[in-house]
Write a structure and sequence with these properties.
Layout (H helix, E strand, L loop, with lengths): L1 H15 L9 H7 L4 H14 L5 H11 L7 H9 L6 H13 L3 H13 L8 H7 L3 H17 L6 H13 L3 H10 L5 H13 L3 H13 L6 H14 L2 H13 L6 H13 L3 H9 L6 H14 L8 H8 L16 H7 L1
């Protein structure tokens, strides 16, 4: 076996000496500046013409660019993929990542099954890419079996895979399974905690979300903006003004730069607790506002039965133009933690 591998390596080395040097090919530089599928097709045609399409670097680039967020052309990526005799694990992973981005989780699972059938082994990137696009139905159908695969291939202690598992189980409503993975994790980062808190928010166990946040801070894990949004959502539902104020103080003391989603969550928390003066203070200090900002402040005043101070004529006039009855906001219906992490 060793001698055969050595011979194969020798043959490959001899073969590749006849291939053009990558750094001497202008087409390679074009990948870095590729901005559209039309440009990528032209570059792809050039690689075929130059006879370098068999190079792993070229294959990786074309698959990655065609399945990237800017293009989202998985049909083209799949056609290229099907022409590659021996795709690298990077290529398999990139295809799964693309299907997740396109919200086609079943195609991602099919790609994973095909990978195994062709005797390719997953690496520690495979499962996070695969799980990221799961819907609740796919998570329920495939989640536990794929968890067994995680353990079989030895990735049970990898933090990125653990985070993906916690999120996947949370998404499917199997929060006890998510908590099992969470509790058995040797290493936890803020993403792990966020995924678990989000899971409890999903099943409306806001008290457990609050407890986890306090535990997280107590052991010195630094919360992120995602954490604050999640725990403020829980405080809003629990009408827990004390914890909400502690979170707001933590944000100020750590000089955390507020963002639109976080500020909206603060407005919602104070409004839910009946503290409309504090809710309005956050609202008025915002640099930017969106429809959720206005919805939350208007609904807060409407639900509390309070009215704006007469001195705030400009805001009163703006609010009077808004149809309160058509508005509603629920921060527990925020996107999953992974999506939030991208937005914040």
């Amino acid at each position: 076996m060793v001698s055969m591998a050595s011979q194969a390596a020798t043959n490959f080395s001899t073969h590749t000496t006849h291939l053009p040097s990558l750094e001497n090919l202008p087409v390679i530089n074009l990948f870095e500046n590729c901005k559209s599928m039309e440009q990528l097709r032209q570059i792809h045609a050039q690689t075929i013409k130059l006879g370098i399409m068999s190079l792993p670097f070229v294959q990786n680039k074309i698959i990655a660019l065609s399945s990237a967020q800017e293009s989202d052309n998985m049909v083209y990526a799949r056609r290229v993929f099907d022409e590659i005799p021996e795709p690298s694990v990077f290529v398999w992973n990139t295809m799964m990542k693309g299907f997740s981005r396109m919200k086609c989780p079943r195609d991602g699972v099919s790609m994973y099954v095909a990978m195994l059938r062709r005797s390719f082994k997953p690496d520690h990137y495979t499962f996070p890419f695969l799980f990221k696009g799961f819907t609740r139905d796919v998570a329920l159908a495939c989640g536990k079996e794929l968890h067994c695969h995680v353990l079989k291939f030895g990735f049970g202690s990898n933090i990125f895979v653990q985070n993906a598992l916690v999120n996947m189980y949370s998404l499917s409503g199997l929060v006890d399974m998510a908590r099992g993975v969470f509790d058995s994790s040797y290493e936890r980062d803020a993403v792990t905690w966020n995924a678990m808190i989000s899971g409890y928010n999903r099943i409306k166990d806001f008290d457990e979300s609050r407890k986890l946040f306090k535990q997280m801070v107590g052991i010195g894990v630094l919360p992120t903006s995602v954490t604050f949004v999640l725990v403020l959502s829980a405080c809003s539902k629990l009408k827990d003004l004390d914890t909400g104020k502690q979170v707001h103080k933590y944000i100020k003391d750590r000089e955390i730069e507020p963002n639109l989603i976080l500020e909206n969550a603060l407005i919602d928390m104070y409004a839910a607790c009946g503290e409309m003066s504090l809710s309005l203070e956050v609202f008025e200090n915002m640099k930017n506002r969106d429809v959720i900002s206005w919805t939350t402040i208007v609904s807060g005043f409407a639900n509390s039965g309070q009215i704006l101070a007469q001195g705030n004529t400009r805001l009163s006039n703006q609010i009077s133009l808004i149809d309160v009855g058509s508005m509603s906001v629920d921060f527990t219906a925020q996107p999953t933690w992974s999506t939030l992490d991208q937005r914040l």
